[in-house]
Amino acid sequence: DYLVATAPKKTMFEPGGIYQNKIQVETNRPNIGYRLLSGPKGMEISPTGVLVWKVPGLYQPNIVDVILSITSDGNHQTYVAFKLKSIRGR
Fold first, then answer.
1. Given this model, what pLDDT does residue 15 score?
2. Residue 30 carries which DSSP code?
3. Are 3 and 80 within 8 A, CB to CB?
4. CB-CB contact of 86 with 13 (8 Å)
5. Of 28, 22, 15, 89, which Cα lies nearest the Cα of 59?
6. DSSP secondary structure string, 44-82?
7. Considering Cα of 18, then 6, then 29, then 33, what sign does the dihedral take?
């Protein structure tokens, strides 16, 4: 059995924009579930693994941490943690 999830390649966000990215998961088990454990206010993850955040126009700080829990078939679990950086904070 395996369950592998990878952090998104798109790691930059724009204040006033929409950050959207699909979490890539490989597993041989059915019923994948996604849960946002930590992230900025307003960030959500869909049942299909699409992470969406309507970034406020004057959002601070320039770097945010995101932690996700991914499960398959209810008893396999992995975590993905990554940072997002503002394009204005370079």
1. 95
2. S
3. no
4. yes
5. 15
6. EE-TTSEEEEE--TT---SEEEEEEEEEETTTEEEEEEE
7. negative
Show the tokens assigned to 87.
């394009």
Three-state SS for 34? strand
The DSSP letter of residue 23 is P
CA 36 to centroid of chain Cα atoms: 7
Provide the whole-model pTM.
Answer: 0.91
| Over residues 49-70, mean pLDDT | 95
Write the pLDDT tens digit of every residue in 7-35. Answer: 999 999 999 999 999 999 999 988 999 99
The two structure tokens encoding residue 4? 């592998």
